[in-house]
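agent> Task received from the user: take the single chain below, predict its 3D structure, and emit C-alpha coordinates. No templates, no multimer pairing.
agent> Plan: (1) validate residues, (2) run structure prediction, (3) serialize to C-alpha coordinates, (4) report one or two observations.
agent> Step 1 OK, no nonstandard residues flagged.
tool_call: predict_structure(input=
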Amino acid sequence: MLFSSIPFLYYFLPVVLIAYYLVPKSIKNMVLLLASLVFYGWGEPAYVFLMMASIGLGYVFGILIEKYKGTPWSKVCMIVSIVISLGFLGYFKYTNFFVSNFSAVTGISVPLLKVVLPIGISFYTFQLVSYIIDVYRGSVKAQKNFISLATYITMFPQLIAGPIVRYSDVENQLKERTVTFDKIAYGIKRFSIGLGKKILIANVLGEFCASFKETDEKAVLFYWAYAIAVSLQIYFDFSGYSDMAIGLGSMLGFRFVENFNYPFISKSATEFWRRWHMSLGTWFRDYVYIPLGGSRCSRARNIFNLLVVWMLTGFWHGADWTFVVWGLYFGILLILEKTFLLKWLEKYKALGHVYILFFVLISFVIFDSAGIGDALTHIGAMFGLGGLPFMTDITGYYLGSYGIMFLIAMIGATPLPKLLVQKLMQNKTGKTAAEILMPVVAVVILLVATGYLVDGSFNPFLYFRF
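)
tool_result: status=success, residues=466
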Protein backbone atom coordinates (compact mmCIF):
# COMPACT_ATOMS: atom_id res chain seq x y z
CA MET A 1 0.00 0.00 0.00
CA LEU A 2 1.29 3.46 -0.88
CA PHE A 3 0.76 6.70 1.04
CA SER A 4 -0.13 8.30 -2.27
CA SER A 5 -3.10 6.05 -3.01
CA ILE A 6 -6.86 6.24 -2.57
CA PRO A 7 -7.08 3.09 -0.37
CA PHE A 8 -4.52 4.51 2.05
CA LEU A 9 -5.83 8.08 2.19
CA TYR A 10 -9.56 7.34 2.43
CA TYR A 11 -9.85 3.87 3.94
CA PHE A 12 -6.78 2.61 5.78
CA LEU A 13 -5.55 5.81 7.44
CA PRO A 14 -8.91 7.10 8.79
CA VAL A 15 -9.84 3.68 10.22
CA VAL A 16 -6.41 3.22 11.83
CA LEU A 17 -6.33 6.71 13.36
CA ILE A 18 -9.84 6.40 14.79
CA ALA A 19 -9.05 3.00 16.32
CA TYR A 20 -5.67 4.22 17.60
CA TYR A 21 -7.11 7.31 19.28
CA LEU A 22 -9.99 5.42 20.90
CA VAL A 23 -8.09 2.51 22.46
CA PRO A 24 -6.33 2.88 25.84
CA LYS A 25 -2.58 3.51 25.98
CA SER A 26 -1.89 -0.05 27.06
CA ILE A 27 -2.87 -1.49 23.66
CA LYS A 28 -1.88 1.33 21.29
CA ASN A 29 1.28 -0.55 20.28
CA MET A 30 -0.79 -3.64 19.50
CA VAL A 31 -3.18 -1.63 17.32
CA LEU A 32 -0.25 0.02 15.56
CA LEU A 33 1.46 -3.34 15.00
CA LEU A 34 -1.66 -4.95 13.53
CA ALA A 35 -2.28 -1.92 11.31
CA SER A 36 1.34 -2.02 10.11
CA LEU A 37 1.09 -5.72 9.24
CA VAL A 38 -2.06 -5.06 7.21
CA PHE A 39 -0.32 -2.12 5.51
CA TYR A 40 2.72 -4.22 4.59
CA GLY A 41 0.75 -7.31 3.64
CA TRP A 42 -1.62 -5.38 1.36
CA GLY A 43 0.52 -6.02 -1.72
CA GLU A 44 2.60 -9.05 -0.73
CA PRO A 45 1.16 -10.94 2.28
CA ALA A 46 3.69 -13.78 2.04
CA TYR A 47 6.55 -11.51 2.99
CA VAL A 48 4.89 -10.52 6.25
CA PHE A 49 6.11 -13.89 7.56
CA LEU A 50 9.67 -13.13 6.45
CA MET A 51 9.62 -9.80 8.24
CA MET A 52 8.13 -11.29 11.41
CA ALA A 53 10.70 -14.11 11.35
CA SER A 54 13.47 -11.48 11.11
CA ILE A 55 11.97 -9.60 14.04
CA GLY A 56 11.59 -12.79 16.09
CA LEU A 57 15.24 -13.68 15.57
CA GLY A 58 16.29 -10.13 16.40
CA TYR A 59 14.21 -10.24 19.57
CA VAL A 60 15.80 -13.51 20.75
CA PHE A 61 19.36 -12.49 19.85
CA GLY A 62 18.93 -9.09 21.51
CA ILE A 63 18.02 -10.77 24.80
CA LEU A 64 20.89 -13.28 24.45
CA ILE A 65 23.42 -10.53 23.69
CA GLU A 66 22.42 -8.71 26.85
CA LYS A 67 22.27 -11.90 28.93
CA TYR A 68 25.83 -12.91 28.00
CA LYS A 69 27.22 -9.37 28.20
CA GLY A 70 30.94 -9.40 28.95
CA THR A 71 31.48 -12.90 27.55
CA PRO A 72 32.51 -14.05 24.05
CA TRP A 73 28.99 -15.44 23.56
CA SER A 74 27.58 -11.93 23.44
CA LYS A 75 29.71 -11.09 20.40
CA VAL A 76 28.93 -14.45 18.80
CA CYS A 77 25.19 -13.77 19.14
CA MET A 78 25.62 -10.32 17.65
CA ILE A 79 27.55 -11.64 14.65
CA VAL A 80 25.12 -14.50 14.02
CA SER A 81 22.14 -12.13 14.21
CA ILE A 82 23.72 -9.67 11.77
CA VAL A 83 24.72 -12.46 9.37
CA ILE A 84 21.16 -13.82 9.35
CA SER A 85 19.57 -10.39 8.81
CA LEU A 86 22.01 -9.43 6.05
CA GLY A 87 21.69 -12.95 4.66
CA PHE A 88 17.95 -12.45 4.13
CA LEU A 89 18.65 -9.09 2.50
CA GLY A 90 21.41 -10.55 0.34
CA TYR A 91 19.35 -13.51 -0.84
CA PHE A 92 16.26 -11.58 -1.85
CA LYS A 93 17.96 -8.47 -3.19
CA TYR A 94 21.29 -9.56 -4.65
CA THR A 95 21.18 -13.28 -5.56
CA ASN A 96 20.20 -12.75 -9.19
CA PHE A 97 22.71 -9.90 -9.51
CA PHE A 98 25.55 -12.23 -8.57
CA VAL A 99 24.15 -15.10 -10.65
CA SER A 100 23.88 -12.95 -13.79
CA ASN A 101 27.38 -11.55 -13.30
CA PHE A 102 28.79 -15.04 -12.74
CA SER A 103 27.18 -16.15 -16.00
CA ALA A 104 28.55 -13.11 -17.84
CA VAL A 105 32.12 -13.59 -16.56
CA THR A 106 32.39 -17.38 -16.90
CA GLY A 107 30.17 -17.93 -19.92
CA ILE A 108 28.32 -20.59 -17.96
CA SER A 109 24.57 -20.09 -18.25
CA VAL A 110 23.07 -20.26 -14.78
CA PRO A 111 19.29 -19.72 -14.62
CA LEU A 112 18.09 -16.85 -12.48
CA LEU A 113 16.10 -17.67 -9.38
CA LYS A 114 12.46 -16.71 -9.12
CA VAL A 115 13.05 -14.28 -6.28
CA VAL A 116 10.85 -11.24 -5.67
CA LEU A 117 12.32 -8.33 -3.72
CA PRO A 118 10.22 -7.68 -0.58
CA ILE A 119 9.34 -3.99 -0.36
CA GLY A 120 11.22 -2.10 2.32
CA ILE A 121 13.56 -4.97 3.25
CA SER A 122 16.60 -2.68 3.05
CA PHE A 123 15.03 -0.28 5.54
CA TYR A 124 13.80 -2.74 8.16
CA THR A 125 16.98 -4.84 7.91
CA PHE A 126 19.12 -1.79 8.70
CA GLN A 127 16.88 -0.96 11.66
CA LEU A 128 17.23 -4.49 13.04
CA VAL A 129 21.00 -4.48 12.55
CA SER A 130 21.37 -1.11 14.28
CA TYR A 131 19.23 -2.38 17.20
CA ILE A 132 21.38 -5.50 17.62
CA ILE A 133 24.64 -3.53 17.48
CA ASP A 134 23.35 -0.93 19.94
CA VAL A 135 22.32 -3.67 22.39
CA TYR A 136 25.79 -5.20 22.08
CA ARG A 137 27.43 -1.81 22.64
CA GLY A 138 25.22 -1.23 25.66
CA SER A 139 23.79 2.02 24.31
CA VAL A 140 20.25 0.59 24.58
CA LYS A 141 18.63 -2.13 26.64
CA ALA A 142 17.32 -5.25 24.92
CA GLN A 143 13.58 -4.97 24.42
CA LYS A 144 11.87 -7.69 26.47
CA ASN A 145 8.41 -6.95 25.09
CA PHE A 146 8.08 -8.56 21.66
CA ILE A 147 5.10 -6.35 20.74
CA SER A 148 7.15 -3.20 21.37
CA LEU A 149 10.09 -4.40 19.26
CA ALA A 150 7.79 -5.55 16.45
CA THR A 151 5.97 -2.22 16.56
CA TYR A 152 9.28 -0.38 16.19
CA ILE A 153 10.36 -2.42 13.16
CA THR A 154 7.01 -2.65 11.36
CA MET A 155 5.70 0.86 12.08
CA PHE A 156 3.94 1.67 8.81
CA PRO A 157 4.89 5.37 8.51
CA GLN A 158 8.58 4.56 8.01
CA LEU A 159 8.45 0.89 7.01
CA ILE A 160 8.91 1.01 3.24
CA ALA A 161 10.69 4.30 2.53
CA GLY A 162 12.33 5.50 5.73
CA PRO A 163 13.65 7.49 7.36
CA ILE A 164 15.79 4.80 9.00
CA VAL A 165 14.69 5.25 12.60
CA ARG A 166 17.13 4.12 15.31
CA TYR A 167 15.71 2.17 18.23
CA SER A 168 17.43 4.62 20.59
CA ASP A 169 15.40 7.46 19.03
CA VAL A 170 12.04 5.86 19.86
CA GLU A 171 12.85 3.57 22.81
CA ASN A 172 11.15 5.83 25.34
CA GLN A 173 8.35 6.75 22.94
CA LEU A 174 7.41 3.09 22.59
CA LYS A 175 6.76 3.05 26.35
CA GLU A 176 5.22 6.46 26.84
CA ARG A 177 3.96 8.98 24.30
CA THR A 178 1.14 11.44 24.11
CA VAL A 179 -1.08 12.40 21.22
CA THR A 180 -1.94 16.09 21.37
CA PHE A 181 -3.89 18.41 19.13
CA ASP A 182 -0.68 20.26 18.27
CA LYS A 183 1.04 17.02 17.23
CA ILE A 184 -1.94 16.00 15.10
CA ALA A 185 -2.12 19.44 13.47
CA TYR A 186 1.62 19.42 12.75
CA GLY A 187 1.37 15.86 11.42
CA ILE A 188 -1.45 16.77 9.03
CA LYS A 189 0.49 19.81 7.79
CA ARG A 190 3.69 17.82 7.29
CA PHE A 191 1.86 14.93 5.61
CA SER A 192 0.10 17.34 3.24
CA ILE A 193 3.39 18.95 2.26
CA GLY A 194 4.87 15.53 1.53
CA LEU A 195 1.81 14.44 -0.44
CA GLY A 196 2.03 17.61 -2.51
CA LYS A 197 5.74 17.03 -3.16
CA LYS A 198 5.06 13.47 -4.31
CA ILE A 199 1.87 13.86 -6.37
CA LEU A 200 2.02 17.43 -7.64
CA ILE A 201 5.75 17.82 -8.26
CA ALA A 202 7.63 14.48 -8.34
CA ASN A 203 5.01 12.68 -10.42
CA VAL A 204 4.75 15.54 -12.94
CA LEU A 205 8.53 15.62 -13.31
CA GLY A 206 8.37 11.85 -13.70
CA GLU A 207 6.00 12.32 -16.63
CA PHE A 208 8.57 14.60 -18.24
CA CYS A 209 11.31 11.98 -17.74
CA ALA A 210 9.07 9.25 -19.19
CA SER A 211 8.33 11.42 -22.23
CA PHE A 212 12.05 12.07 -22.69
CA LYS A 213 12.83 8.35 -22.69
CA GLU A 214 10.02 7.53 -25.12
CA THR A 215 10.84 10.09 -27.81
CA ASP A 216 13.46 9.47 -30.50
CA GLU A 217 13.92 13.18 -31.26
CA LYS A 218 16.42 14.12 -28.58
CA ALA A 219 18.72 17.11 -28.33
CA VAL A 220 21.58 18.24 -26.08
CA LEU A 221 19.29 20.66 -24.23
CA PHE A 222 16.69 17.90 -23.81
CA TYR A 223 19.31 15.69 -22.12
CA TRP A 224 20.23 18.47 -19.70
CA ALA A 225 16.55 19.13 -18.97
CA TYR A 226 16.12 15.42 -18.26
CA ALA A 227 19.10 15.47 -15.87
CA ILE A 228 17.54 18.36 -13.95
CA ALA A 229 14.09 16.75 -13.98
CA VAL A 230 15.22 13.33 -12.77
CA SER A 231 17.34 14.86 -9.98
CA LEU A 232 14.40 16.93 -8.75
CA GLN A 233 11.97 14.04 -9.21
CA ILE A 234 14.05 11.75 -6.98
CA TYR A 235 14.45 14.52 -4.40
CA PHE A 236 10.76 15.44 -4.21
CA ASP A 237 9.65 11.81 -4.32
CA PHE A 238 11.99 10.69 -1.55
CA SER A 239 11.76 13.81 0.63
CA GLY A 240 8.00 13.83 0.09
CA TYR A 241 7.72 10.29 1.44
CA SER A 242 9.94 11.26 4.38
CA ASP A 243 7.69 14.25 5.10
CA MET A 244 4.63 12.01 5.00
CA ALA A 245 6.32 9.50 7.32
CA ILE A 246 7.28 12.21 9.81
CA GLY A 247 3.76 13.64 9.63
CA LEU A 248 2.14 10.26 10.21
CA GLY A 249 4.51 9.62 13.11
CA SER A 250 3.48 12.91 14.69
CA MET A 251 -0.20 11.99 14.35
CA LEU A 252 0.61 8.80 16.29
CA GLY A 253 2.58 10.64 18.98
CA PHE A 254 6.08 9.82 17.66
CA ARG A 255 8.90 12.14 16.72
CA PHE A 256 11.02 10.82 13.84
CA VAL A 257 14.37 12.18 12.70
CA GLU A 258 14.60 14.54 9.73
CA ASN A 259 15.85 12.96 6.51
CA PHE A 260 16.43 15.89 4.14
CA ASN A 261 17.63 19.44 4.68
CA TYR A 262 17.63 21.27 1.33
CA PRO A 263 20.56 19.37 -0.21
CA PHE A 264 20.56 21.41 -3.43
CA ILE A 265 21.82 24.51 -1.62
CA SER A 266 25.04 22.66 -0.73
CA LYS A 267 28.49 23.91 -1.71
CA SER A 268 30.27 20.54 -1.70
CA ALA A 269 29.60 16.81 -1.88
CA THR A 270 30.49 16.64 1.81
CA GLU A 271 27.71 19.10 2.65
CA PHE A 272 25.32 17.50 0.16
CA TRP A 273 25.53 14.17 2.01
CA ARG A 274 24.96 15.88 5.32
CA ARG A 275 21.68 17.12 3.90
CA TRP A 276 20.53 14.20 1.66
CA HIS A 277 19.02 11.02 3.14
CA MET A 278 20.57 11.92 6.48
CA SER A 279 19.36 8.83 8.32
CA LEU A 280 21.18 6.56 5.83
CA GLY A 281 24.35 8.66 5.95
CA THR A 282 24.54 8.58 9.74
CA TRP A 283 23.78 4.83 9.73
CA PHE A 284 26.77 4.07 7.50
CA ARG A 285 28.92 6.49 9.49
CA ASP A 286 28.11 4.89 12.86
CA TYR A 287 27.94 1.22 11.87
CA VAL A 288 30.46 0.92 9.02
CA TYR A 289 32.77 3.93 8.63
CA ILE A 290 33.74 4.44 12.29
CA PRO A 291 34.15 0.68 13.04
CA LEU A 292 36.48 0.48 10.01
CA GLY A 293 38.62 3.19 11.56
CA GLY A 294 36.94 6.30 10.20
CA SER A 295 39.40 9.13 9.67
CA ARG A 296 41.57 8.27 12.70
CA CYS A 297 44.01 6.26 10.63
CA SER A 298 46.51 6.63 7.81
CA ARG A 299 45.57 8.49 4.63
CA ALA A 300 45.57 5.25 2.61
CA ARG A 301 43.37 3.47 5.16
CA ASN A 302 40.96 6.41 5.28
CA ILE A 303 40.61 6.33 1.48
CA PHE A 304 39.93 2.60 1.68
CA ASN A 305 37.30 3.17 4.38
CA LEU A 306 35.55 5.83 2.31
CA LEU A 307 35.51 3.68 -0.82
CA VAL A 308 34.07 0.71 1.10
CA VAL A 309 31.35 2.85 2.68
CA TRP A 310 30.34 4.49 -0.58
CA MET A 311 30.41 1.26 -2.56
CA LEU A 312 28.06 -0.21 0.06
CA THR A 313 25.92 2.95 0.03
CA GLY A 314 25.46 2.60 -3.71
CA PHE A 315 24.85 -1.15 -3.52
CA TRP A 316 22.24 -0.63 -0.79
CA HIS A 317 20.17 1.34 -3.29
CA GLY A 318 19.89 -1.48 -5.79
CA ALA A 319 21.37 -4.64 -7.29
CA ASP A 320 22.92 -3.09 -10.38
CA TRP A 321 26.37 -1.81 -11.35
CA THR A 322 24.90 1.64 -11.93
CA PHE A 323 24.25 1.95 -8.18
CA VAL A 324 27.75 0.73 -7.30
CA VAL A 325 29.27 3.25 -9.73
CA TRP A 326 26.97 5.96 -8.35
CA GLY A 327 28.15 5.27 -4.82
CA LEU A 328 31.85 5.13 -5.78
CA TYR A 329 31.38 8.32 -7.81
CA PHE A 330 30.41 10.19 -4.64
CA GLY A 331 33.12 8.37 -2.69
CA ILE A 332 35.78 9.69 -5.08
CA LEU A 333 34.36 13.22 -4.86
CA LEU A 334 34.51 13.06 -1.07
CA ILE A 335 38.10 11.75 -1.14
CA LEU A 336 39.12 14.61 -3.44
CA GLU A 337 37.40 17.10 -1.14
CA LYS A 338 39.09 15.68 1.96
CA THR A 339 42.46 15.69 0.20
CA PHE A 340 42.55 19.23 -1.20
CA LEU A 341 39.34 20.41 -2.85
CA LEU A 342 37.24 21.35 0.17
CA LYS A 343 39.38 24.32 1.22
CA TRP A 344 38.93 25.86 -2.24
CA LEU A 345 35.20 25.22 -2.26
CA GLU A 346 34.85 26.89 1.16
CA LYS A 347 36.83 29.87 -0.09
CA TYR A 348 34.90 30.27 -3.36
CA LYS A 349 31.34 29.43 -2.29
CA ALA A 350 29.66 30.46 -5.55
CA LEU A 351 31.99 28.09 -7.38
CA GLY A 352 31.09 25.40 -4.86
CA HIS A 353 27.36 25.72 -5.67
CA VAL A 354 28.00 25.36 -9.40
CA TYR A 355 30.41 22.46 -8.82
CA ILE A 356 28.06 20.37 -6.70
CA LEU A 357 24.98 21.02 -8.84
CA PHE A 358 26.91 19.91 -11.92
CA PHE A 359 28.17 16.69 -10.33
CA VAL A 360 24.83 15.92 -8.68
CA LEU A 361 23.03 16.17 -12.04
CA ILE A 362 25.55 13.77 -13.57
CA SER A 363 25.19 11.42 -10.59
CA PHE A 364 21.43 11.07 -10.90
CA VAL A 365 21.69 10.39 -14.62
CA ILE A 366 23.84 7.40 -13.61
CA PHE A 367 21.38 6.51 -10.82
CA ASP A 368 18.40 6.46 -13.20
CA SER A 369 20.09 4.66 -16.10
CA ALA A 370 19.23 1.13 -17.21
CA GLY A 371 22.89 0.14 -17.20
CA ILE A 372 26.43 1.49 -17.42
CA GLY A 373 26.25 1.71 -21.21
CA ASP A 374 23.00 3.65 -21.01
CA ALA A 375 24.55 6.02 -18.46
CA LEU A 376 27.59 6.68 -20.65
CA THR A 377 25.34 7.34 -23.65
CA HIS A 378 23.26 9.84 -21.67
CA ILE A 379 26.27 11.65 -20.24
CA GLY A 380 28.00 11.76 -23.62
CA ALA A 381 24.87 13.22 -25.23
CA MET A 382 24.79 15.97 -22.59
CA PHE A 383 28.14 17.14 -23.97
CA GLY A 384 27.18 16.90 -27.62
CA LEU A 385 28.62 13.47 -28.46
CA GLY A 386 26.74 11.56 -31.13
CA GLY A 387 26.11 14.55 -33.36
CA LEU A 388 22.88 15.62 -31.65
CA PRO A 389 21.47 19.09 -32.32
CA PHE A 390 21.47 21.50 -29.42
CA MET A 391 17.73 22.20 -29.75
CA THR A 392 14.74 20.71 -31.57
CA ASP A 393 11.06 21.56 -31.86
CA ILE A 394 10.20 18.59 -29.61
CA THR A 395 12.58 19.88 -26.96
CA GLY A 396 10.99 23.33 -27.15
CA TYR A 397 7.52 21.81 -26.86
CA TYR A 398 8.33 19.84 -23.69
CA LEU A 399 10.25 22.68 -22.08
CA GLY A 400 7.32 25.00 -22.78
CA SER A 401 4.83 22.48 -21.39
CA TYR A 402 6.78 21.75 -18.21
CA GLY A 403 8.62 25.03 -17.75
CA ILE A 404 6.40 26.25 -14.90
CA MET A 405 6.81 22.96 -13.06
CA PHE A 406 10.59 23.17 -13.44
CA LEU A 407 10.50 26.66 -11.90
CA ILE A 408 8.24 25.54 -9.03
CA ALA A 409 10.45 22.53 -8.32
CA MET A 410 13.68 24.51 -8.36
CA ILE A 411 12.29 27.13 -5.99
CA GLY A 412 10.69 24.44 -3.80
CA ALA A 413 14.05 22.68 -3.45
CA THR A 414 15.42 25.74 -1.63
CA PRO A 415 14.50 27.15 1.82
CA LEU A 416 12.87 30.19 0.16
CA PRO A 417 9.21 29.10 0.64
CA LYS A 418 9.90 28.22 4.29
CA LEU A 419 11.67 31.54 4.88
CA LEU A 420 8.75 33.45 3.35
CA VAL A 421 6.31 31.70 5.69
CA GLN A 422 8.56 32.44 8.68
CA LYS A 423 8.77 36.07 7.61
CA LEU A 424 5.00 36.24 7.27
CA MET A 425 4.54 34.87 10.79
CA GLN A 426 6.79 37.46 12.42
CA ASN A 427 3.91 39.90 12.85
CA LYS A 428 0.51 39.27 14.38
CA THR A 429 -1.53 39.83 11.20
CA GLY A 430 0.70 37.58 9.14
CA LYS A 431 0.63 34.87 11.79
CA THR A 432 -3.17 34.95 11.91
CA ALA A 433 -3.35 34.79 8.11
CA ALA A 434 -0.92 31.86 8.02
CA GLU A 435 -2.84 29.96 10.70
CA ILE A 436 -6.02 30.36 8.64
CA LEU A 437 -4.41 29.55 5.31
CA MET A 438 -2.41 26.46 6.34
CA PRO A 439 -5.47 24.21 6.92
CA VAL A 440 -6.97 25.52 3.68
CA VAL A 441 -3.76 24.75 1.77
CA ALA A 442 -3.65 21.26 3.30
CA VAL A 443 -7.22 20.55 2.17
CA VAL A 444 -6.54 21.94 -1.32
CA ILE A 445 -3.44 19.75 -1.68
CA LEU A 446 -5.44 16.69 -0.60
CA LEU A 447 -8.26 17.46 -3.05
CA VAL A 448 -5.96 18.16 -6.00
CA ALA A 449 -3.84 15.09 -5.22
CA THR A 450 -7.02 13.01 -5.01
CA GLY A 451 -8.03 14.31 -8.43
CA TYR A 452 -4.71 13.16 -9.86
CA LEU A 453 -5.05 9.73 -8.25
CA VAL A 454 -8.66 9.21 -9.33
CA ASP A 455 -7.66 10.22 -12.86
CA GLY A 456 -5.07 7.45 -12.85
CA SER A 457 -2.18 9.85 -13.39
CA PHE A 458 1.48 8.82 -13.41
CA ASN A 459 2.25 7.56 -9.87
CA PRO A 460 5.42 5.41 -9.81
CA PHE A 461 6.86 3.89 -6.67
CA LEU A 462 10.65 4.41 -6.75
CA TYR A 463 11.36 2.21 -3.72
CA PHE A 464 10.72 -1.12 -5.43
CA ARG A 465 14.47 -1.04 -6.13
CA PHE A 466 15.29 -0.67 -2.44
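agent> Step 4: summary for the user.
Residues 10 and 351 are 47 Å apart (CA to CA).
agent> Done.
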